[in-house]
Write a structure and sequence with these properties.
Helices cover 56% and strands 7% of the residues. It is mostly helical. The two termini are 35 Å apart.
Length: 193
């Protein structure tokens, strides 16, 4: 019983490793370092050092699978609606109708909302990865939408080979595509909730 009491007293007397003079509120869930209430409110039970530690890079397979899921989520609803319209109205005007593109627009809006909240599209969320800035902080929506997505798609419209060159950059040690370098982002494994 005295060992328990001594351990409890040492915890109660512990000081924050980042803010000397402040008593510890919790121990870091990752490294066990004592942290004060200020540090504990910064993240999910992590000290500041562990909170800002560089997250592990996403695997190439996870990135490819997430890209395929995002592409399927974007194309399949429009394709399905287009096929239904062609069966109902068998002429060329069926595929030119703007209603065929409505599901794709809806998917883009949902994806933008997911990216705004978590830094991860639907495919990335399913694979447990997300986009962050080069310094590890959350990436802004404009950075993801414009520099990582819209700019490469627009450039691939002019030069199809650019898409292949962009993807080949993923083979490098840093696992960053060309659009990641342009946007100043990385794709990392998302922390477990």
């Amino acid at each position: 019983m005295s060992d328990f009491r001594e351990a409890l007293e040492s915890i109660l007397e512990a000081q924050c490793s980042e803010h000397p003079g402040f008593s510890a509120a919790i121990a870091c869930a990752r490294c066990g370092t004592f942290t004060c209430a200020f540090c504990a409110s910064s993240g999910a039970g992590l000290c500041l050092r562990c909170l800002h530690a560089a997250p592990e890079l996403a695997t190439r397979r996870a990135r490819l699978a997430a890209c395929l899921v995002d592409g399927a989520a974007l194309l399949l609803p429009s394709l399905f609606l287009g096929v239904l319209r062609c069966l109902a109205i068998p002429d060329e005007a069926a595929m030119k109708a703007p209603v065929v593109y409505a599901p794709a627009l809806l998917v883009l809006l949902v994806q933008a909302n997911l990216i705004r909240g978590t830094g991860a599209s639907l495919g990335k969320r399913l694979l447990g990865i997300r986009v962050v800035r080069g310094d590890g902080l959350p990436a802004e929506v404009w950075r993801i939408a414009l520099l990582r997505n819209a700019l490469p798609m627009a450039l691939c419209g002019y030069c199809v080979w650019l898409g292949l060159v962009d993807a080949l950059f993923l083979v490098g040690e840093k696992r960053r595509c060309l659009h990641d370098w342009v946007a100043g982002t990385r794709v990392v494994k998302a922390p477990r909730a």
